[in-house]
Amino acid sequence: MNAPASIRPVTLRIAQLGDAVERARIAAYVEEHRDGTPFHLPAWSAAVASGCGQRAHYLVAERGVHGIVGVLPLTELHSPLFGRVLASAGFGVGGGVLADKPEIAHQLGEACWTLAQRLSCPSVELRGGPRPGPEWTVDDTHYLGFERALAADDAAELLAIPRKQRAEVRKSLEADLTVEVGQGDVAVAAHYAVYAESVRNLGTPVFPARLFREVLNEFGPASDVLVVRHRGQAVAAVLSLYWRGTVYPYWGGGTAAARLLRANDRMYFELMRHARERGCARFDFGRSKVGTGAAAFKKNWGFVPTPLTYYDRVANGASIRDANPLNPRYRLQVALWRRLPLAIANRMGPWIAKGLG
């Protein structure tokens, strides 16, 4: 006699992301799961793999007629400078296990660890989701998330911003700035140029341009680029994702001139307006490291920080990979990178950054 469907064993496998039907089934599961994020979508894993040359290993748990009952998107990251790690999700701020039940989360965690050992990855990083088991250490002190509801209109949005920051936004609205939104080559090139300069000024390498193009290609109309210009020159830009009524401004920055022009303030206020017009109700300002200027900037906008919980598992004798530019041991490298000519930083940066994840 066949076992009842409710107690049939769970089968685990690696998804074929090149199969359109497979991807659609997984995306439907992620869409319906209350804890799903854009970083769980097959589109994200595919974009990262193509854009950075890092392999995707997307774990799927299935049970008989129930179909998919859990997923875990994984990226095998390799860096000559920072070593190997299996991350969920690579280059994302979210990820981790999505599962219908705790026991399925545990099975996915074990399958992930077995895969890491097979791939000679001494550590695994899970960014969010449930803790798969006691073998996984908890990290809830390094990163903060910022998210809140969008207001009903521009006037209400301004009032939702604390007084001091609101004054800066009002000044930005009066400045000689223009705004464009799209996915065309001109906008995409402008975004990359601005973003590359922004991260160079912070002392960190820029990601490959292909990563941004692949994300826009994979997410299609659920993504775009917003560019702020001053007298025709791009001074601030952000690449955003739109998913389940939330806008995710993900890769954004400004040139050296942006601060005096208040271009970043204009950029985010205009994105809030644009997101409302697209039907979004929430604004996810992404993650920032505790104690950083980025975290303070988001607090100034009235966003209340929420600690993000990540999990690590490390092989005996190994240590958790640390590619954090705030680590004091990288202080000299960060200072030197800030002084690099932009052309050199843009040439060298992608080779380094594609392995950071």
UniProtKB/TrEMBL annotation:
InterPro entries: Acyl_CoA_acyltransferase, BioF2-like_GNAT_dom, PEP-CTERM_FemAB-rel, PG_Glycine_Bridge_Synth. Pfam families: Acetyltransf_6. This is FemAB. It comes from Sphingomonas turrisvirgatae. Coiled coil: none annotated. It comes from the Bacteria. Residues 166-299 form the BioF2-like acetyltransferase domain.
